[in-house]
Amino acid sequence: MDTNDIKAVENTAKENYKKSEPWPDDDVWHSYTYKILHKHIQDYIDELQLKSTQVVLNAGCGKTTYKTCATIIYMDIIEEYINLFENYLVGSVEKIPLQDCSVDCVICVGSVINYVDIQKATAEFSRILKPNGILILEFERSNSAEFLFTKKYAKAVFMQKYQYNNQTHYLWMYDERFVLQLAEFYKLCCNKKYRFHSISSLLFRLGLSEKKAAKYSKFDNWFQPFSYFFAHNEILIFEKDDLS
Ligand SMILES: C[S@@+](CC[C@H](N)C(=O)[O-])C[C@H]1O[C@@H](n2cnc3c(N)ncnc32)[C@H](O)[C@@H]1O
């Protein structure tokens, strides 16, 4: 595959996910990722105190759900993941089949954005969000310790090939500042950050196995002040500008 071919990257993601589960049980690193993500996203949703009249889009949801009074629309490119949910949409984050200013909160986590054209997806999130709507975004960073002392470290964007779930995945890795600048362009203002897999990424870079290193993610809260330089993953919370 020509790794600069954005369509080939998306098609590979689709083929891979069609053949497997969103989060394989036997992969320790990704089990930790899922646990950290689910806890933090549920906490953010609880903080928002959404009402029953409000609408949340879980974009690239896989099989993951959250507790809330609001109506959740589950969207993914893989119909088999979502067709048991009451409100589901088969679609891509690059072209979301929803109207402008129709959603109160978008959740897009679990590296979904690393598989797609981030500019198109960010434009779409901004388009469908109501003024003051919230975007909860998680992504894998080029500022990860995994790339320390290589030319890739902190690059705005590059393509990384991973062996994951017995498959070859191609992910666009992003620099944190690049994501923030792009979001700002689309009127999304960041008001919260949580970086994770900090010490675990560093220990992995220093030669510890993925399985052993992953366990150190339990120290992520302590490492927040230093996490900019090492963390592999990040959750960003944005609010859409009230344009009035
Ligand atoms: C690792 S799973 C994460 C699932 C879920 N977001 C979670 O946190 O549990 C990645 C998901 O991204 C979905 N995906 C990949 N490309 C997508 C796209 N262009 N639009 C929507 N979903 C996509 C996959 O089908 C898969 O369900």
What does this structure look like?
29% of the residues lie in helices and 27% in strands. A 7-stranded mixed beta sheet has the order 3-2-1-4-5-9-8, with helices on both faces. With 244 residues, it is α/β, with parallel strands linked by helices. Strand 6 (157-164) and strand 7 (167-174) form a beta hairpin. It has helices at residues 6-18, 28-48, 79-82, 118-128, 176-185, 199-205, 210-214, and strands at residues 55-59, 71-76, 88-90, 103-108, 129-140, 157-164, 167-174, 188-196, 233-240. The N and C termini lie far apart (46 Å). It has one domain: Vaccinia Virus protein VP39 (Rossmann fold). It contains 7 helices and 9 strands. The structure holds S-adenosylmethionine (SAM).
How are the secondary structure elements laid out?
Blueprint: H1 6-18, H2 28-48, E1 55-59, E2 71-76, H3 79-82, E3 88-90, E4 103-108, H4 118-128, E5 129-140, E6 157-164, E7 167-174, H5 176-185, E8 188-196, H6 199-205, H7 210-214, E9 233-240
Parallel strand pairs: 1-2, 1-4, 2-3, 4-5
Antiparallel strand pairs: 5-9, 6-7, 8-9
Broad CATH class: Alpha Beta
**Assigned CATH superfamily:** Vaccinia Virus protein VP39
What fraction, in percent, of the residue positions are helical? 25-40%
Shape category: globular
* Cα radius of gyration in angstroms: 17 Å
Ligand inventory reads: S-adenosylmethionine
The CATH architecture designation is: 3-Layer(aba) Sandwich
**Helical stretch count?**
7
Which blocks of ≥5 consecutive residues have pLDDT under 50?
none
